[in-house]
Specification:
By secondary structure, the chain is α/β, with parallel strands linked by helices. It has 20 helices and seven strands. The chain has two domains: about 240 residues, no CATH class; about 120 residues. Strands 2-1-5-7-6 form a five-stranded mixed beta sheet, sandwiched between helices. Strands 3-4 form a two-stranded antiparallel ribbon.
């Protein structure tokens, strides 16, 4: 079953497409894949597989776990605020969490980050209630959904480090997470090798986060809340940024749960009596927040739109045309539309994703790809947007050089985050 972009719109970016196509594999093939790559997302893929087995409802089914998890996380934030600051703070903190733009972004994405945030929110609440077995179980679930949930232990330490129950629970979480950490570390080079170290934008984002947290915490009379919220908001992203100076690992969504701390502080601050001027500032901030919320629901809020790419290929390709992906990992753009992919000759493909136990399949050697290209009268090439860094691997260089030397570009269609170009041998564009 494939996904199509209907007349009413709808979009899906490449990470969601990976969830869709992997979760639709038979369980034995899915299990073999996780032994080779992407084990860090394995539990989420298994969850999505179960959802699709019960209801193969396209984008609705793909995103349903994230929507439910965001509601659960907001309830967890409210429970935390109620325990630390009362009913009014609970209502406002839960609403603040749900309104934060990054939370809204990952609430409507078929990946694991909203589920991890829900696990961390409720684990933090169970920590405060000293329910150590439940705490360890829930946090371990978050770690199996994504290993960087382990950083929440550091955020919990300032509050709970004196408790023997917490120390035993933290040790149990670390031991039970160790196999996943070991396996994913072996796979990290293939998955994260293209990440650069943190740039100016990352540090500026963290600086803005720290400034907001310290401003909200200033003068807060609820010291217990501050001890929980500030480490949760600041420590996980700070540690991941610091480690990334040596080994690039930082992506902001990996520590989405840090926003739980921001929401707690915001809810407590709004629950206190505020002068009219402060409420005017809050109202003014809601205007860009509303615009941002609307923008997050458009295809342009994501890096690309695989359904738009598939629609463009469907429009411009002819049956039997060759298709070429530059780089090869952009094969993901058509894997969630198998009926489009099957109508073309994937001339660089050696072994399909399922046969090779990989996400995007394996490709032929450079010489074989060049020969296959030169035997093809027409080629539909799927490329990154102009100006993107080009992969330097020999196989990618051969694709580019052969197209440039032996083909004419007949047309190029730009869609969000991608280009669909049609090439033909000299004189064949007519």
């Amino acid at each position: 079953m494939g996904l199509e972009r209907g007349p009413g719109g709808g979009s899906m970016w490449r990470d969601e497409s990976t969830t869709w196509q992997v979760a639709h594999r038979p369980l034995p093939e899915l299990w073999r894949l996780l032994g080779e790559v992407d084990a860090v997302h394995g539990l989420h893929y298994l969850l999505a597989h179960g959802v699709f087995a019960l209801w193969d409802g396209g984008l609705w089914a793909l995103r349903l776990p994230s929507v439910a998890a965001t509601a659960l996380a907001a309830a967890g934030v409210a429970a935390l605020a109620h325990h630390l600051a009362g009913e009014r703070a609970a209502l406002l903190a839960g609403c603040a969490y749900a309104l934060l733009p990054p939370v809204q972004a990952y609430a409507q994405e078929g990946r694991s980050y909203a589920l991890v945030a829900a696990a961390v929110a409720w684990a933090t609440y169970l920590m405060l209630r000293e329910r150590w077995v439940s705490y360890a179980t829930v946090l371990l679930l978050g770690c199996w959904l994504h290993e960087f949930a382990l950083l929440a232990l550091l955020a919990h330490a300032p509050t709970a480090h004196r408790s023997r129950g917490w120390r035993w629970g933290a040790a149990a979480v670390c031991v039970a997470s160790a196999p996943l950490v070991w396996l994913s570390s072996r796979q990290a080079a293939a998955q994260l090798g293209r990440l650069a170290g943190p740039g100016l934008e990352d540090w500026a984002g963290y600086g803005a986060l720290a400034a907001a947290v310290l401003l909200l915490a200033r003068g807060c009379p609820r010291r217990d809340l501050v001890r929980v919220a500030v480490p949760l908001a600041l420590l996980p992203p700070a540690l991941l940024l610091t480690v990334s100076l040596v080994r690039p690992l930082y992506v902001d969504r990996y520590v989405l749960y840090a926003l739980i701390g921001v929401a707690l502080l915001a809810g407590e601050r709004l629950a206190r009596p505020l002068p009219a001027r402060s409420w005017a500032v809050v109202a003014a901030l809601l205007v860009p927040l509303l615009w941002w919320s609307v923008h997050l629901r458009t295809p342009e809020a994501r890096k690309d739109d695989v359904l738009a790419v598939a629609a463009a290929v469907r429009e411009h390709a002819r049956p039997g045309d060759a298709v070429l992906f530059l780089p090869s990992r952009r094969r993901e753009w058509l894997l969630s539309s198998p009926e489009v992919h099957a109508g073309l000759r994937d001339i660089a493909l050696d072994r399909a994703p399922t046969a090779s136990h990989t996400l995007h399949g394996t490709e032929l050697p450079p010489g074989a790809i060049r020969e296959a290209l030169l035997r093809s009268p027409r080629v539909v090439a799927l490329l990154d947007p102009a100006g993107q860094p080009q992969d330097r691997e020999p196989v990618e260089a051969v694709k580019r050089d052969t197209l440039a030397a032996g083909f004419e570009r007949c047309s190029e269609t730009r869609v969000h985050g991608a280009r669909v170009a049609v090439y033909a041998r000299p004189g064949g564009c007519g």
